Fold this sequence. Notes:
Blueprint lengths: L4 E6 L2 E6 L4 H7 L23 E4 L6 E2 L10 E3 L3 H16 L15 H8 L24 E3 L9 H9 L6 E3 L6 E3 L16 H5 L5 E3 L3 H8 L5 E6 L20 H11 L3 E4 H22 L5 E2 L4 H10 L13 H17 L6 E7 L3 H5 L11 E4 H10 L21 H4 L6 H15 L17 E8 L2 E9 L1 H12 L7 E5 L17 H16 L10 H11 L5 H7 L10
Parallel strand pairs: 1-5, 10-11, 10-13, 12-17, 13-14, 16-17
Antiparallel strand pairs: 1-2, 3-4, 3-5, 6-9, 7-8, 15-16
Helix pairs in contact: 8-10, 8-14
Amino acid sequence: MKTQNFIVTLNGKKVEGKSNETVLELCKRNNIDIPTLCEYERLEPIGACRLCVVEIEGARGLQTSCTTKLRQDMIIKTHTPRVIDARRTNLKLLLANHDLNCTICKRNLDCKLQKYSKDFLIEENEFDKGFRKNEPVDDSSVSIKRNNNKCILCERCVRVCNEIQTVYAIGLEKRGHQTHVVPPLEKDMANSTCVNCGQCVIACPVGALTEKTDIDEVVKVLNDGTKYLIAQTAPSIRATLGECFGMSAGTPVTKKMVAALRELGFQKVFDTDLAADITIIEEATEFIKRFTKKQNLPMITTCCPAWIKFAEQFFPEQLNHMSSCRSPQAIMASLVKTYFAKLMKIKPEDIVLVDIMPCTAKKFEIKRPEFAGEADFVLTTVELGKLIKQFNIDFVNLKDSDFDNPLGESTGAGVIFGHTGGVMEAALRTAADWISNKNLKEIDYHKIRGMDTLKEAEVTIGKNTIKIACVQTLGQARKIMDDIKANKSPYDFIEIMACLGGCIGGGGQPHPSDFEQLKLRTKAIIKEDEGKVIRKSHKNKTALKIYTDYIGEFGGKKAHQLLHTEYTPRKPY
């Protein structure tokens, strides 16, 4: 139906409305702030929290602004005494059944429920005398902590997990005041279909779902004095860490991040981007072999551990389509405990490697049996921000510092791993050079950039046409995998990332408020790539030296021992 424009009255003023627009959207467009806890940009509104109620002339009762569509001549009032009283009452009812240990909550001072309680001047609560939840905290997962005592039943986590990610790890069980969010059959998170992507953590407006922290263990290591301490930092961290210190989204903080890690006590700070370049060298080598022989196509990238677990659980018969390359995190961990340890004459067991990652699923990845004894801890971006504050480091005013050699040199191709489409674009830069046997100048693949959950392109290299797809969100990945399972997939090469935006929207990042924040982070990544002298992975001199001195030929026997892995079919429960 064609959108119609008409006039409505909003708080006594005539404004233009649109027939496909909700009252909440109209208010946002006119800079009127309406409180809401269940509204989420990525989901259809359901009016669960009922904080966004407004008064509409002619309606029998107050209406939820997030679900009410505009109509001609509508008269809307957003802050009448009746509306404010209803919002305050709804807040009190939520608080009456909420764990109020705010000062020790991870979302303290970053919680919408806390903010609204202050805004609505709630100092006493007449409902705070009855039933209060007292459920055990689910600490079973290596990545995500679930505390139902803080849950406000907004359903954002459930709907993201089920509607967007199609993982179905959590849902609503029981009824009335006993309703709670829990994995099916009342199991814990470790025994659910959870893939550790952390999108539920990003969606939660309170502290009911958080990353499971390793900060205390890392602090012990930093004060131990007997270990050689190394940190590696993923590509996207440089575009998001500044937000933890009040900087605007997309502020590049690469060198301040390195300086902060040195201040914390790390003896070496390595760039995971170098390992990303090595990933591309191996992945491009693998793809060209498969494409030439037309075997196990399409080939699918394997940098995202949440996607890998998703495939192992739901599509075990299609694991032959997965690239055998480790993720950059795992490749760097392997090189640190082998190549670097040998170079420095340090026993691998005397090295403690802490990975700074955008992703809660990376905590799960380092626990996989095939990576045992390599990376020791994972801290998310949010955790690193908290650790820096705990050590009273003045992050904003730190002097710049560079990554350490021999594992600190990277290319622009390594940097763009941080956003959706970046792994594919990096791989194409190398594959195109090798297939054409030329040093191609056109290396920006704009068609696979952007926030669409499915981006498609055809790339012509000499006489070859390669059909590619870049996928973000696991719900979209499921559709792609269903086509592969049915032998209907038209693609040769596919990138899959579990999180919207790729790693810049990972479950361990500062919680983005909207799509624009993700776009600003992406721009920062692209800008750093464009500022690099070398923008192709196979031109990374440090990576090539590691091959010459230690690994041997691309895709060779030793490369497979150090840089590749296998995947295991696993039951969802």
